């Protein structure tokens, strides 16, 4: 059953692309409306296609979150087939799914960071698929490139472990930052309000998303979708759109968050001074295994055996792949 599913997942991106093209007449109509808006967002960065890796650095040190992985440098990752761009312009970041390891050995994986960092803006990430499964801890996130963690902040846009259903969106910060929940969100609930984090105590402040299409297997079964983060002085607001629900203005490159309806997560600046807690944020995409979150959570996850046993078996990682359509940043 597992290999049939993975074949389906890997075939999804092209089907999804075909649908995007079929809708182009509709998109053009919506563009005309979006372009007439005042103060429209302007595209400043677009990461997609054959030059994708030019704008990212490969992190190749020990995993700071304690995972059983070797993060490969760019040359090694490329040679091992763990980081590449397909001919259809989809960028793939994979975990080694061929090497049988002995229990306790680390598995090869990839962690990349954008060379650029930001102090606000509108971030749009379109992924066709994401890693998931027993022992797997994928994350698409932002972290300060200039301050020592947690000062400067961390913004976790997509994150979860093992067979989780539903994404978790989390902020980590220095002292004196609370999630003040006064704004309505859709299909989510607050799991913690204390954003202040430290190495031994770092749940952060977070929303759990209840729609299974926001994470893992069910995300991939829909050919993924779009996560959007609008980061302003007034706070951070997140939306999720499953593949079939992506608004035309996003696909057209003229995004208008005021038209997107109720967000899935809002962190207003009423409980947290955003500008002093979050700055110089680089984008990061990685997949680790076990580590500080997936490890302790393994026992209650319904996965067989131990987390380290799962890492040893390459068949567990056939769907542990990020398939990235594009990431765009607007100001
Ligand atoms: C991939 O991107 C390049 C550069 O933007 C473009 O010329 C090419 O048509 C794209 N290929 C596909 C299959 O979309
Ligand atoms: C999301 O929330 C809306 C409104 O409460 C509800 O109708 C819908 O079923 C929810 N969707 C999911 C997938 O939970
Ligand atoms: C939370 O926000 C509300 C309204 O936005 C404000 O009245 C209240 O003082 C805030 N609470 C805290 C603890 O900042
Ligand atoms: C952000 O980065 C810039 C450029 O590296 C640096 O000059 C500035 O001090 C950093 N900001 C903070 C608050 O550390
Ligand atoms: C993952 O690895 C474990 C340990 O070897 C094994 O028991 C399990 O069947 C594997 N799961 C899948 C889905 O292949």
Automatic annotation (TrEMBL):
Signal peptide segment? 1-22
Note the Gene3D superfamilies from the entry: 2.60.120.200
Q: Name one GO biological process term.
A: glucan catabolic process
The record's annotation in InterPro entries points to:
Beta-glucanase-like, ConA-like_dom_sf, Glycosyl_Hydrlase_16
CDD domains reported in the protein's UniProt record? GH16_fungal_Lam16A_glucanase
Any single GO molecular-function term of the entry would be:
hydrolase activity, hydrolyzing O-glycosyl compounds
Q: Which domain of life is it from?
A: Eukaryota
Residue ranges that the Swiss-Prot or TrEMBL entry lists as coiled coil: none
Q: Does the keyword Transmembrane helix apply?
A: no
The answer to whether the entry has keyword Signal is yes
The protein's UniProt keywords, in alphabetical order, are: Hydrolase, Signal
Q: Which SUPFAM superfamilies match?
A: Concanavalin A-like lectins/glucanases (SSF49899)
Which residues does the UniProt record annotate as the domain GH16?
34-331
State the PANTHER family in the record. Answer: GLYCOSIDASE C21B10.07-RELATED, GLYCOSYL HYDROLASE-RELATED
**What is the name attached to this protein's record?**
Glycoside hydrolase family 16 protein
């Amino acid at each position: 059953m597992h290999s049939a599913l993975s074949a389906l997942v890997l075939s999804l991106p092209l089907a999804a692309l075909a649908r995007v093209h079929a809708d182009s007449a509709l998109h053009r109509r919506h563009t005309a409306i979006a372009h007439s808006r005042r103060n429209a967002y302007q595209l400043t960065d677009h990461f997609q296609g054959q030059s994708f890796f030019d704008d990212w650095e490969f992190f190749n040190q020990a995993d700071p979150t304690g995972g059983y992985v070797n993060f490969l440098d760019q040359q090694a990752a490329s040679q091992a087939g763990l980081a590449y761009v397909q001919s259809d312009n989809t960028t793939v970041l994979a975990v080694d799914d061929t090497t049988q390891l002995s229990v306790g050995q680390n598995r090869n994986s990839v962690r990349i960071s954008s060379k650029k960092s930001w102090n606000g803006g509108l971030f749009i990430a379109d992924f066709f698929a994401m890693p998931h499964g027993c022992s797997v801890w994928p994350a698409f996130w932002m972290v300060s490139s200039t301050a020592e963690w947690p000062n400067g902040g961390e913004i976790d846009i997509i994150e979860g472990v093992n067979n989780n259903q539903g994404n978790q969106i989390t902020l980590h910060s220095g002292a004196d930052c609370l999630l003040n929940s006064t704004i309505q969100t859709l299909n989510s609930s607050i799991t913690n309000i204390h954003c202040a984090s430290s190495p031994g105590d770092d749940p952060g402040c977070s929303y759990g998303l209840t729609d299974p299409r926001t994470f893992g297997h069910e995300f991939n079964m829909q050919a993924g979708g779009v996560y959007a983060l609008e980061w302003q002085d007034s706070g951070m607001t997140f939306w999720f759109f499953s593949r079939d629900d992506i608004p035309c203005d996003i696909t057209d490159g003229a995004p208008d968050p005021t038209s997107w309806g109720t967000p899935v997560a809002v962190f207003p600046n009423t409980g947290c001074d955003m500008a002093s807690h979050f700055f110089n944020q680089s984008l990061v995409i990685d997949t680790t295994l076990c580590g500080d979150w997936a490890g302790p959570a393994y026992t209650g996850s319904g996965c067989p055996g131990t987390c380290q046993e799962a890492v040893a078996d390459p068949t567990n990682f056939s769907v542990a792949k990020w398939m990235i359509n594009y990431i765009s940043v607007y100001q």
